[in-house]
Write a structure and sequence with these properties.
This protein is of the alpha/beta class and 172 residues long. The chain has one domain (8-169). It is built from six helices and six strands, in the order βαβαβαββααβα. It has helices spanning 18-29, 54-60, 75-79, 105-114, 119-124, 136-151; strands at 8-12, 41-44, 69-73, 85-89, 97-100, 131-132. The protein is globular. It holds the Pfam family DUF6924. This is DUF6924 domain-containing protein. InterPro entries: DUF6924. It comes from Catenuloplanes atrovinosus.
Length: 172
């Protein structure tokens, strides 16, 4: 079984590159705007899950998971400069998948937690290379600006690093 937690699982399924896993964890845990957002993740780093497929992942979650998705850090994730995680639907279309940039996984997890029936919207919103990026820099700014407005706090996009460089090559 996968762990039962109150947070969204990010499960490592490829163990060839420890540095790539560290970059994935950092990009998920430290996205632009992290002071405005709240999305909790549990990182699962257990070799027992090596090669875990979406279908097998469905078998390892409880019948009523606390979150409508999990993210797999598979061989595609670890070998791409963009580190695109494989998001697996647990609620709307169990077993359905799409890839998400790690720095916007908070957006996917938070939105699907509130509206789990909208998984298909993310599938339709991937970029031409098949990765969901929340509309790029402009989309991320729009979402974070809206969150700041709802919270009644100031927002200045210049205070955040929305680089278009691959997550693997970002420098802070």
């Amino acid at each position: 079984m996968l762990p039962v937690t109150e947070s969204t699982l990010v499960v490592r399924t490829d163990f060839a590159d420890p540095d790539a896993w560290a970059r994935v964890r950092r990009a998920v845990a430290e996205p632009p705007g992290r002071d405005l957002i709240s999305a909790a993740f549990t990182f699962v780093d257990d070799p027992a899950h090596a090669g875990l497929s979406p279908r097998r992942a469905l078998e390892l979650v409880p019948p009523r998971p606390s979150h409508p998705m999990i993210a797999l850090a598979d061989s595609v994730t670890m070998s791409s400069p963009y580190l695109p995680l494989l998001v697996v639907d647990l609620a709307d279309d169990p077993g359905g998948t799409f890839r998400s940039a790690p720095e916007v996984l908070w957006h996917v997890a938070s939105s699907l937690f509130v509206a789990p029936g909208y998984f298909h919207e993310y599938v339709r919103s991937v970029d031409p290379d098949g990765i969901y990026r929340c509309g790029g820099r402009d989309g991320q700014i729009k979402v974070l600006s809206a969150i700041a407005s709802l919270k009644g706090v100031p927002f200045d996009a210049d205070d955040y690093d929305f680089t278009d460089a691959p997550a693997a090559s970002r420098r802070r």
